[in-house]
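Comment thread on ticket #2218

A.B. wrote:
> Attaching the input chain for the structure job we discussed in standup.
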Amino acid sequence: MTVFVYDGVRTPFGRYGGALSGIRPDDLAAHTLRMLVRRMDFDPGRVDEVVWGAANQAGEDNRNAARMALLLADWPTSVPATTVNRLCGSGMDAVMTASRLVETGDAQLVIAGGAESMTRAPWVLPKPAKGFPADDAALHSTTLGWRLVNPAMPQRWTVSLGECTEALAERYGIDRDRQDEFAARSHRLAAAAWDSGFYDDHVAAVPGVPLVRDEPLRPDTTPERLAALRPSFRPDGTVTAGNASPLTDGACALLLGGEQVATWSGQKPLARIAGRGAAGVDPDAFGIGPVRAAEIALARAGIGWGDIGVVELNEAFAAQALACLAHWPELDPELVNVHGGAIALGHPLGASGARIIGQLASAMRQRGVRWGLAALCIGVGQGLAVVLEVA
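C.D. wrote:
> Ran it. Output below, let me know if you need it in another format.
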């Protein structure tokens, strides 16, 4: 059975400790579910499954965040839900899983998306091996990256994502100027998209929060201003807070279904999911995970790079995105992230994959192109990609 993306909505993305810091991740998720129902005016009891992405799941997003969200949204208790975790790819993994449910006929209408509050990610304290330990105990932040590492894991794989990106920049000869220019472009295009009204139909403000645009966005950012920032991971490095995606809070939900949804809703689909791809790489080379995943997705869709009219590539780091583009010489880089990317908009880990798929569908419609690609890298060395077709 053919599967389509019919609609999508997300919260504005908030900075770490910013406007959304007082909102739980399950409440962010519930808000997007309510908004989908309001926008498409359907009975949530029609939903066959909710598939949700969350990368942390160590705090308020524990105990199956998908199920918590639909209960908080006052949906019928008869609607089942599951939460998936593929770190930065969780939201895209949720969409891919949901699309398979529709394709196999196991479901007709599925909600897929993700949420993350990196601000509210808790500290964790490991249990002691025995009672009444005499030594001090350390708290570990669960906001981002490795923690409680298995000592059997090779050390080169467990360095920070920033250090991995520094190594990637060296490997591909990506200097500081190129990274800062790429980051400034992200802010410039995102600001222009907001000003033109592109995001107005995609973003639903959270009640009680005076945030209507993405909080990380800096419309006046320039390469010169970014050049003044200090390196974040090496004293002589090139990766800074300005050319990397910020820690972010937010949620995004998409409505997926078969042709029957158009019949009862009266709404035409935005795009068809035409191909999916997943790939693994060495954990310290996580940034190029999308390269092989995109090739797999294109092959399964039966098309090539020459058919692609627009690309959403998640900008975990400028150097990481540029390294991926180096592997795709057939792709015009001006077709990538035409409305800005995660460096400007933010990267709430569990939500980003759903965000870029929904944004891709809208961009394809706006630009009148048939084929588009969404792809992202994933910590611990993976990549995901989805090909969309607009009929």
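A.B. wrote:
> Thanks. Noting for the ticket: Residues 176-196 form the longest helix (21 residues).
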